[in-house]
Amino acid sequence: MRLYADKLVEALNRALQPVYLVFGNEPLLIQESRSAIERKAREQGFEEKHHFNVDASLDWHEVYDCCQSMSLFSSRQVIELEIPEAGINAAIGKELTKLAQTLNPDILLLIVGAKLTKAQENTAWFKALMAEGCLVNCLTPDISRLPQFVAARCRALGLSPDAEAIQMLAQWHEGNLFALAQSLEKLALLYPDGQLTLIRLEESLSRNNHYTPFHWVDALLEGKANRAQRILRQLAAEDVEPIILMRTAQKELVQLLHMRVAMNHQPLGAIFEKHRVWQNKRPLYSAALQRLSIQRLHHLVQLLAQSEIVAKTQYEQSPWPLLQQLSFECCVAQANLPLPA
């Protein structure tokens, strides 16, 4: 069974599974999912918990012993395995496959880790655990899904935001869901009637959004000029190194240029497959390729090179205006922008 974190509580109320794989890139959702599973497990008699960090020092025999021996105080136990940031290598995968064969009805296995890749989902250990398990996807909602996520969190707290308040909450807390949770709890205390408006938000909250260079690049690909400039201003205010932005943008622009050239003799689907573009990213690349010609892309690469020269040699001159120009010229439609001489 597979489900997103926001559907977990509903699924737990129906039935408790013997194995839960809680994987993703959003710390808040991972924390809340872990807590919800442990809470439901305690209600059903899993009163003892064993936590193991899956690193080089782990003695797997201790894990197996927990599975095979009965507790003195409780017949039901939760075994929680914390996967390191490096992920699951072949040796860990072998142990997990073996562990899946030792489980019994008095054991609930909870494995927590970072976002899985498609390749990992095709491994023997994953298939063995998923035979009786549930994968809980704890992925950070993208900007298009964030308003829906915010609205659901508000409903759970008895808050009734209007449309403008939802958009503002999403914009102010993008990339920082811990801050969103704290802000909503604060608003619930401040306004017992639950009504949230733009004025109330501005009186009560400050911005807590956290952008990365990848947010900026996605805005460039999609052609959202205002959003790209807003992200760029905040990154500059946070003293993010301009070179990091340049390297991130360079990779995407060079790839777009290769794709644009290939479009002369290949269908777009085949080009995406060749460059291994994920399905959820294809609409962004399609928008950029329709908007930007080969000539325009060459110009953007040259503009990026110019900004890098300024950053590395002209210490009295800021490269940020050039990055702002790059943002604008990358987002504005070709017909609305004169080509360089």
UniProtKB/TrEMBL annotation:
Belongs to the DNA polymerase HolA subunit family. Pfam families: DNA_pol3_delt_C (PF14840), DNA_pol3_delta (PF06144). One of its GO terms (biological process) is DNA-templated DNA replication. It catalyses: DNA(n) + a 2'-deoxyribonucleoside 5'-triphosphate = DNA(n+1) + diphosphate. The keyword Transferase applies. Its EC number is 2.7.7.7. It comes from the Bacteria. This is DNA polymerase III subunit delta. Keywords: DNA replication, DNA-directed DNA polymerase, Nucleotidyltransferase, Transferase. InterPro entries: DNA_pol3_clamp-load_cplx_C, DNA_pol3_delt_C, DNA_pol3_delta_N, DNA_polIII_delta, P-loop_NTPase. GO terms for molecular function: DNA binding; DNA-directed DNA polymerase activity. The keyword Nucleotidyltransferase applies. GO terms for cellular component: DNA polymerase III complex. Residues 20-138 form the DNA polymerase III delta N-terminal domain. Residues 213-332 form the DNA polymerase III subunit delta C-terminal domain.
